[in-house]
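Q: For a teaching handout, I want to show students what a protein-ligand complex looks like in token form. Below are the inputs, and the small molecule is arginine. Please produce the holo structure.
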Amino acid sequence: MKKLISLLQDRMEKAFQECGYDNEYGKVINSNRPDLCEFQCDGALAAAKRYKKPPFIIAEEVVEKCKDYKEFEKIEMIKPGFININVSKDLLTNYCNRIMNEEKFGCQMYKNKTVVIDYGGPNIAKPLHVGHLRPAIIGESIKRIHKFFDNNVIGDVHLGDWGLQMGLVIEELKFRHPDWDYFNENFDGEYCKEALFTVTDLEEIYPCANSKTKVSENATEEEKEKANEFKENARTNTAYLQEKKRGYYDLWKKIVEISVKDLKENYKKLNVFFDLWLGESDSQKYVKSMVEKMKDLGILYESNGAMVVDVQEPNDTTQINPCMVLKTGGVSCYQTTDLATIMQRQIDFNPDEIIYVVDKRQELHFIQVFRCARKAEIIDKDAKLIFLGFGTMNGKDGKPFKTRNGGVMRLENLIDEVNRKVYEKMRDSKEYSEEEKVKISKIVGLSALKYADLSNQISKDYIFDIDKFTSFEGKTGPYILYTLVRIKSILNKFYENNTIKENKILNPVEDIERQILLKISKYNQILEESYIENAPSKICTYLYELANIFNSYYQKVKILKEDSERLESNISLLSLLKRIFENGIELLGFEAPEKM
Ligand code: ARG
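A: Here is the structure, written as tokens, with arginine included.
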């Protein structure tokens, strides 16, 4: 279905042509003076140069032509040559009625693409912390938007399960439990089925192991040596792991199993779901053939013991260092796993696009990896590799968000804090049972967190402001939900004792009705833009503006008191609004409570 603005543009182009001008000047855009008009065309200003005529003359001729067209309710020339446009009531109303009958609100569906979305990216053996919030929230929304447009979308969590951190955890476990079968070279039986440790243990073990590799400036030689030895052992463990050495590999599998179970529960609380639970480790089986391929192409060479590929390009203004494909001793590093994963995805899915939702501070890493992947021809040359780098969530001091005592805040705790804030607002309400209040505050709390995050441009940093995010007024998730719940409750009240014959919206009478219809008519355009630009923030802004218009409509129009024809039209309008809000929040990744 064509966008409303394109329908107007078609007409405008025709008018330019009929007046003897090129139709390219008929471009229609949203008005940048909504107080004066709904749409505008600035083509006469551009045409003036080519046709050597004053722009207002051209505009006047075109406006005169357009008076015959039923698409425009008001069309006028404003000096020096702007054309201000209001759409006709009939067209606007018909358009909204058509949208009502379209499952996808009249969005244009694009060619079915296969898109892999790499998001989440948690590291095994560490609890989810606030740094994991953004990739989960943004990735989930991008995934839902791409699915809405009928793409074959694969969301992959891409666990960090193959690096030195695993070797460190193993080293610490070995230190604490040297007697475990996993570390006994001579053991050839079956390893213990039950887990010998819990996630909580792991969460304590990783930082402990990590601190053992660090020494203070004034450490003694002995302390330095100890730290070095610990790190060296961790490196050896990592190498063992990558060779799948018996015992070490089995212990690692247990660590992964326990961590993943916990991660799944935590992501579920965020309403975040992955299609694939693969990790860096799953790409290991492609490393050998990938390295062979690079050798055959003659792009791989040795540098200080490591194997690297040059990725500098002639137009670069800064130096881009070679991409490290293997570390000394043939050990896999972060670049290795990302490269081999590209190869794996190419073989498994032949994707049109791979989108990486990763901290923008990793941009250089991805520049190197993408260039190297292209040079090594491990990805189809038409496939797009997209780095969607996100900014940091900061505290009020402008620095990355921390707990009150300066530590990294666990994601669970942050979620609890937001939920508690929402709960406080409802604590004294007599309307809900205790159980309901807890349930509602979880749903509303999640909307606060997600909306606040997604309403910012992805690449921008933003400040975590719990009071602002959880407010029921202003550009917040709770405000959107509050509006949707209001719409639902009006509909419920109506449908308790009534039905309607036909879903049909009548021409607007009040100006506020016109404003709602105009906003509704643009939903498909907003969805397409947010899809093409990977910009959920566009949906956030749209829903906020729609909510504002609806709430003034609610103040001005007696929705349930009109005569029967208008009443049916009002109900149809509200049903459509409900669908739009529900679809919008679904794409953002949260839901609405029944009441709040
Ligand atoms: N695990 C990584 C980290 O914590 C993020 C992974 C991002 N995705 C990727 N394909 N590299 O930094």
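A: Two things your students might notice: The pocket of arginine is lined by residues 118, 121, 123, 158, 160, 338, 356, 358 (CB under 6 Å). DSSP finds 20 helices and 13 strands in the chain.
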